[in-house]
Model the fold of this input.
Amino acid sequence: MCDLLMKFGAMEEKLRAIETRLQDSENQIMDLRNKERTKVIFSAAVGGSGHIGPFNTDTTLIYRAVITNIGGAYSQYTGIFTAPVAGVYYFTIFFHAGGEHEAILSVYKNNQLLVVTHDHQSDSDSADSGGNAVFVQLQLGDMVYVRLAANSHIWGKYNKTTFSGFLVTQI
Done:
């Protein structure tokens, strides 16, 4: 009888270990499902009816013509993207401008300069376009935005100046 009780105790211990492993596996599956469900994708254009700028100071651009905003992380009222989850994100900026002023756009993360796109003033060139892109690691709540440099301008009409981004992977 003692031998039978020892075997039963050992089986009980194995069963608890299996239950713990099963619970851990279920938790990992749920974590993966939640990560897979987190979709963050946005694209917006400055919009408007003509040129924007030049201004006397650097100005955060507000891209009011939202094309898509899955996850709601981009604000068309402030021009700021706020990371809803920690991860690696990819951002792009493109602009179109006339040649009579410089065109300088910079992408920032929490006041830290990430990338710049720039075109010089020209009397012989009537239109300019440019762009840049960056992968950046963000933490929950980090902010990414685009600034138009002082005394420069871009074109807003026909959605030619855009700011886009998406979550590549959560970390």
The chain has one helix and twelve strands. The helical segments are 2-37.
